[in-house]
Amino acid sequence: MRCSYIRLLVNDYEACFRFYRDVLGLPVLWGAEDTRYAEFDVGSPTRLALNQREVMAEALNTDEADMSLPGQDRCAVIFEVDDVDTKAAELAAAGARQVSEVRDWTAWGIRAAHFRDPDGYLIEINCPLQILIP
To answer: Where do the VOC domain residues begin and end (predicted)?
Structure first.
């Protein structure tokens, strides 16, 4: 596994996008002020990503009433793996709390599963979807 992203799940996406782009001066690798998701170059193979907080909450079916969560996720650590199915099974067998089954997130271009660490932080393992071209 390699840490590919640190994803901040933000309430005010547009303001945060402008902050990281204009104030910190980070180059935008993907996304724009109105896309609800963006990636920034931070000078290393790991990227910083911003995601509108509700997008992740909707994807994982979490809500403010779930007291086992840190009041809706604020951060996710993303690990790229070679085989999501195998790694998810290994993590679950080792005792990791799985919160989403392995599935294709076609709109995101990835196959992924989600887990929580002992303190409730969101961990995503993923790999790019292999798109077959006829």
So the answer is: 2-128
